[in-house]
Amino acid sequence: MKKRAIYPGTFDPISNGHIDIIKRARKLFDEVLIAIASSDEKKPMFTLEMRVKMVKAAVKDIDGIKVEPFSNLMVDFASSKNILTVIRGLRAVSDFEFELQMGYANASLNREIETVYLMPSLKNAFISSSVIRSILKHSGDASHLYPKEIEQLLKGGA
């Protein structure tokens, strides 16, 4: 039986930190489903379709990765895919409190769900999608923070 995990998030946009976590998760699991949340309440910079396109481009050379959008509760989506392990990234102590609460909330909704927390490498520890969005909004160069495979998509290309 394959060991499978889900890595949920908005990926608005996908960052090198996300790629770091995906590669680490892939070492532990046979298959990782990257679940892209619609997250309308967060008012993402990029459409769900564009975020799916960016993630697929960024992970195209990593075996054992699937990418799918979702708009329901993550635990329900994971259960519908027969996945009971959730991957979450922790960059700093500030992430820990939020992620711990989410892990407990998910476990309260489905007792079989386990959350595995992974840390990115030190060079990627400060990277967040919000940092990238802020740089992009001000016409700065954030290309060192996201995968090169999404460069054209971020610049409006197909």
Fold and architecture overview:
The chain is of the alpha/beta class and 158 residues long. The protein has one domain (4-154): HUPs (Rossmann fold), CATH 3.40.50.620. The protein is 39% helix and 18% strand. The chain contains 6 helices and 5 strands, in the order βαβαβαβαβαα. The protein has helices at 16-28, 48-59, 74-80, 93-109, 129-137, 151-154, and strands spanning 4-9, 31-37, 65-70, 85-89, 114-118. Strands 1-2-3 form a 3-stranded parallel sheet, sandwiched between helices. Strands 4-5 form a two-stranded parallel sheet. β1, α1 (16-28) and β2 form a beta-alpha-beta unit. It is globular, with a radius of gyration of 15 Å.
